[in-house]
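Reviewers of the previous submission asked for a worked example of the structure-prediction workflow described in the proposal, so we include one complete record here. The input consisted solely of the amino acid sequence. No template or homolog information was supplied to the procedure at any stage.
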Amino acid sequence: MNSFEHLMCHLLSSEGYWVTQAFKVDLSKEEKKLIGRASSPRWEIDVLAYNPRQKELLILECKSFIDSVGVQAAQILSHDESGKSRYKLFVDKVLRETVFKVIKRQLVKLGMITDDTRLVLGLAAGRMKSKQDEDVIIKHFELMGWRFYSPDWIKTQLKKRSESGYFDSVADVVAKILLREK
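From that input alone, the workflow returned the following structure tokens.
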């Protein structure tokens, strides 16, 4: 969902990240074969967010699931078919390592990051199936060294935006209308 990705870009930008949306990964034919997707189009990352202070590149998958059941931990942890299709970078190690290598190569070549930049996988969730699912994902992501942006984190950031000075963005205006105390 483009709107949710845009919201995450805005929130991460206000946290000091330089962001871009819908980043195309230039996989070679050999790399596509390696990941078992020889005929796939260019791989796309929802959000790339670079934090220059930490020399960290966040590779963020955004799952809003606003009007659905929400993110389910079992789909990420059990590697079932729905998880394999929905959370590819989280469940397929060869895919993840290959995509990370290519992203780093692309961005180093462009002079946007350096070889010592740390790449971190992340997930932003607009809705969780349950608190238990959220707790399981938090623990799993900590073990993997990944980043998780929960619905509560998003709400907290929007609340902060509602209390800040005027900024001409849809997210800030809506946050001020809905969340600002009288």
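The chain has nine helices and five strands. We consider this example representative of the routine output the project will generate in years two and three.
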